Amino acid sequence: MLLGNAGLVLCVEYYNEDGVSIMWVTTGLDDPDKPTILLWLSNPKSKPRPRRAFVIARLDKQSHKIIVDLATHAILSDKVYNGHGYPLLTYEEQLGTMELPQTYKPFIESIERRGLNLSEVVCSTFTIGWFGELKSKRVLKVLCFYVDGPMNLYVRPVEGITLVVDIDEMKIVEYYDMFIVPVPKAEETEYKESKLESPFGPRLNGATLVNLDGLGFKIHGHTVRGFISEMFVPYMDPSEEWYYKSYFDSGEYGFGLFAVSLKHFADCPANAVFLDAYFSTNDGTPAKLSNAFFIFENHAGNIMWHHTESSIPRKVFTEVRPEVSLVVRMVATVGNYDYIIDWEFKPSGSIKLGVGISGVLEMKGVTYTHIDQIKKNVHGTLLLENTISVYHDHFLTYYLDLDVDGKANSFVKNNLEAIKKQAELVAVNPNKKTNVGNNVGYRLIPGSVAHPLMSYNDYLQIRGAFTNNHVWVTPYNKSEKWAGGLYVDQSHGDDTLAIWTLRNRKIENKDMVLWYTIGFHHVPSQEDFPVMPTFGVGFELRPTSFFDSNPVLKTRPPYIVHWPNCTN
Amino acid sequence: MLLGNAGLVLCVEYYNEDGVSIMWVTTGLDDPDKPTILLWLSNPKSKPRPRRAFVIARLDKQSHKIIVDLATHAILSDKVYNGHGYPLLTYEEQLGTMELPQTYKPFIESIERRGLNLSEVVCSTFTIGWFGELKSKRVLKVLCFYVDGPMNLYVRPVEGITLVVDIDEMKIVEYYDMFIVPVPKAEETEYKESKLESPFGPRLNGATLVNLDGLGFKIHGHTVRGFISEMFVPYMDPSEEWYYKSYFDSGEYGFGLFAVSLKHFADCPANAVFLDAYFSTNDGTPAKLSNAFFIFENHAGNIMWHHTESSIPRKVFTEVRPEVSLVVRMVATVGNYDYIIDWEFKPSGSIKLGVGISGVLEMKGVTYTHIDQIKKNVHGTLLLENTISVYHDHFLTYYLDLDVDGKANSFVKNNLEAIKKQAELVAVNPNKKTNVGNNVGYRLIPGSVAHPLMSYNDYLQIRGAFTNNHVWVTPYNKSEKWAGGLYVDQSHGDDTLAIWTLRNRKIENKDMVLWYTIGFHHVPSQEDFPVMPTFGVGFELRPTSFFDSNPVLKTRPPYIVHWPNCTN
């Protein structure tokens, strides 16, 4: 679950005519049609046919979209994509690109001119976006950082140098060395525990959960599914070095591909159970990521429901049930930011979708050491001498293929109207009623909403137009999965959710998809540096006359587990 | 902490000239002036003088506001209040009022006419509000319920009967029996565990926290402070029996006075520590409420910060710190609703203020048994046969006397502006700077905001005008504490936050108060019945360049406590 452009493992050999193996960019599941899936769900013995994989591959500077039959290993279709944009970047491509400057003479000279040690320079890749150019190549910009000190890539940018790399050719095609500003000293920015020096902060108290009943859930296979359709991070600095920085973390990089192995007792409580994940690499072979997901029962001390009856004289009583919810978590680190993705399933039927944003800021080196020196708009916060963090937004767009008690659903805007009007949004099944006749439904409870700050005509926002609204509803369409399109790198915004909805298709009483965007304007503060305390955002899907009455009324409370006598 | 109109205990004998003891309505702390408090905080040995109590008492149908010196037992001032509105209702007054109908002949006949058993009828009190009347008396409306069955007061309203009681005289002054509709059968609405019958839901798994290091916090006395200034619950049914229903839970009833004793292992996790509270009763004597607050370390499995450094070749590592936060909780049950009030203090300096809404709905008995029978607007949701729950809002207004690194603060609206404009709100101290010169500050991170639906000219909204904005900032003024005013029962809205701010006082570089209102439009769903799964809302105060850098960077992670060998 939650894996972005990733999924099952494909073992098909595939070469071009010259015997050159092709670069696998995306290997994923080609979902069967909905009726086939539903038939299979109703009768698990009827294995869905055909089982197919979906592959995007690069060959001879062209993007191929390939469908493979997994039973027969046959290629069912192979189409060259001629539209705008490129498929996501593979890890191997980025690693190759990062290493090019180390042997590039002009770059070596630039580093010497700055008095830096080449072996301590690490470069990183940045997508170039699209700003109206008529022609494009599959290129990346490369910026570099100094790691002679804290193991924190982004805090010590080597400003002024930009390389452009053609990744199909894997060679440097443009080089600029425009100005020199000091590399921030970045003192006290180490965050690796083994390198931290005293004085330390307090040690947090440890605790473990003792679950004498055993766990309250079981895992069979890998059947939980769902994903972040796109994640758009526009930065708002118009300078030459920063204007193009806007990341589509799913479409350009493959959000789920950057899932990281989780650490027991740190990323999760003591009672967590882990699942591994598998990815396909550049050449199509599978790679295993251990502990990619963890699943745990949340005994956080929340209250499922509570009532004290104090209005009936001489019969005062309190009834209360503690909540034990199920959390499924993954963490994806896409470059500098770490996204903690939680799906919390409550016994009441509520589903809370949370994102914790942590990690490190992307920095800009400047000459300023105090804000009193700053006379013009620097589009960011001065965090430490020579170090600015640029304002930006985070938009996470969820794809939620809702089936509320069946496929045919409607989306209802309940207008709450006395004098003023406000709306609440409910997905209902107009064909299914509760005992007293209400349509069964699930309500969307939005979190704090941030809207895009850019004009709809801004090139960045044209490509990120799926964030123009924080809620969209579309009829289910197998090909509409990635809000920013399938070929996002350098895309022109002509294959986004905002374009698909222009068709204004009927969504009443249909199989529909709810797209919800979590937004967060990030005005960095000094606390976010050198590593950012988790900032939590989210939303909730809550049953709304889906059940005839409180579904946890008769859920029995846990037996009380008293403080046991323990030896460690 | 968190206690509304309640506080310390006063033991002063006070009689009128006839020797009749007076009714104590409110006994609270008369805060010393801010300079006195600050002096005392900087030097705890300098005991603040004078230590004073603030009393509102009723005597001869008049409201007295009395200041008492606790050292000398002297009355420092005693003023009769001649403005609009009355002080809050005491528990004893409400209990007395509820019992009056049982011996009132017309009421007994009404109950017989409905074929009901008088001994199973329980009445409850309802404030009458203000709808433009020029004169008023201190009266309550009384509505009754049938408890021959589930112990759930509000599910079985005896519709059509309204009594009006003069509570100074403690007698019935008006009586209406207008129509008869069936008392809802309310089948399957029992929620008391001992009375629930099979089939049961699953039993949740138990767990206990084993904290081998002991607890990570200590409690000295009762020094945590803060409160909900007002809580406004307007219902939106214009019918004769419901139009007046709008509750000011603090000013009319005394929100904190309805704090309930918390249950270990149900209202809180195993590692909670409890504190008691004391209230003054009608005659001024103290009453103890056991386990009114609990304080616990939250080991919920949250992540304090996380970063995986994957951009430096051959040096990939993950650093992560689990979060252990401190939660202070109380639950207040004001009639049918139970409010779980959480203050969560994070090691990073963030303060999360959460409210969980649970309890039972207020019901309206109707003739309908299915929504197909409903042809006109019923202003509510049909939950079960003969049972409607009326639409309403919940507004909780927090009073936050912020002192960001000192008293003199400013409130900054950071306009985020590219083409479109959005604001973020930060309380800063313009006199204190970080190492690089940013003003130290705390940011307000609002939760989902619901605005009032009523016209500003509606009588209800005139009284609840402090909800017209969800954020207000005022200069600190000792007398401005309760957003709805001090005499809220039947108030005319002439002593609310919305009136105080008309003076448009300077708030820049001042000791200021932030008022934040959490709002929630409650369109009841069948799941909310017969008892409502907790609905969570809240907001966050997050340090914003208050610290020079991440304050939890060097907080050391807990020692790992492995699953111990335990005997129960």
UniProtKB/TrEMBL annotation, chains A, B:
Class in the EC hierarchy, top level: oxidoreductase
PTMs per UniProt: Topaquinone (TPQ) is generated by copper-dependent autoxidation of a specific tyrosyl residue.
Every Copper amine oxidase catalytic domain range: 224-420
Domain (Copper amine oxidase N3-terminal): residue spans on this chain: 87-183
Active site residues per record: D249, Y337
Origin: domain of life: Eukaryota
GO biological process, one term: amine metabolic process
Copper amine oxidase N2-terminal domain: residues covered: 28-79
Comment on bound cofactor: Contains 1 topaquinone per subunit.
Keyword flag Zinc: no
Keywords on record: Copper, Disulfide bond, Metal-binding, Oxidoreductase, TPQ
Sequence similarity: Belongs to the copper/topaquinone oxidase family.
Database matches in PANTHER family: AMINE OXIDASE [COPPER-CONTAINING] ALPHA 2, PEROXISOMAL-RELATED, COPPER AMINE OXIDASE
Entry protein name: Amine oxidase
Organism listed in the record: Quercus rubra
